[in-house]
């Protein structure tokens, strides 16, 4: 009887190991998976993706000079024009760390809290380590098209 019990117990253990191996976790637990690295996107990838989505971007260029006391915590800053509102357009910023991104987001919050600069930061979107900031002269519908293409990046 003891031998038969050991065989059943060993079988149950092997079954449990097979489940853990196949699922990556115990039954009833949520698998954790492999975490994504924070620095997921490059600025060029974002611009290409927006363009491939049929959105107008012209005169795309790298520009590391920022004004109005903006923090220089970004890794990449690409600015571009949108033909309908040129020379207005937008910018794509990428960040190396969450802290660098948070510094920029805090800056945007400060601009939004100031009645003189609030209008300049109407359309600001974040996807992983990238930020897309669009000119306030766009319509909500136009900005939404850029936002949707940006947030669809994986």
Give the C-alpha Rg: 24 Å
Strand order of the largest sheet: 1-2-3-5-4
The average pLDDT value, as a whole number, equals 84
**CATH third-level topology of the largest domain:** Protein Transport Mog1p, Chain A
Q: Strand share of the residues?
A: 15-25%
CATH architecture of the largest domain: 3-Layer(aba) Sandwich
CATH class annotation of the largest domain: Alpha Beta
Helix-and-strand structural type = alpha+beta
Number of structurally distinct domains: 2
Q: Count of DSSP E strands?
A: 5
The major beta sheet can be summarized as:
5 strands, antiparallel
Element-by-element helix/strand order: HHEEEHEEH
Shape category: globular
Query: How many individual helices?
Result: 4
Low-confidence stretches: 5-27
The helix content, as a percent range, equals: 25-40%
Spatial separation of the terminal alpha carbons: 56 Å
């Amino acid at each position: 009887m003891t031998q038969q019990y050991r065989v059943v117990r060993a079988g149950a253990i092997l079954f449990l190991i097979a489940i853990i191996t196949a699922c990556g976790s115990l039954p009833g637990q949520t698998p954790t998976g492999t975490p994504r690295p924070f620095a997921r996107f490059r600025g060029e990838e974002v611009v290409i993706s927006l363009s491939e989505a049929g959105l107008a971007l012209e005169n795309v260029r790298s520009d590391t000079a920022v004004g109005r006391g903006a923090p220089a915590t970004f890794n990449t800053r690409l600015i571009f024009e949108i033909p309908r509102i040129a020379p207005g357009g937008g910018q794509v910023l990428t960040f190396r760390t969450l802290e660098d991104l948070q510094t920029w987001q805090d800056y945007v919050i400060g601009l939004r809290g100031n009645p003189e600069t609030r209008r300049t930061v109407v359309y600001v979107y974040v996807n992983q380590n990238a930020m897309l900031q669009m000119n306030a002269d766009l319509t909500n519908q136009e900005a939404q098209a850029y936002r949707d293409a940006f947030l669809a990046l994986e």
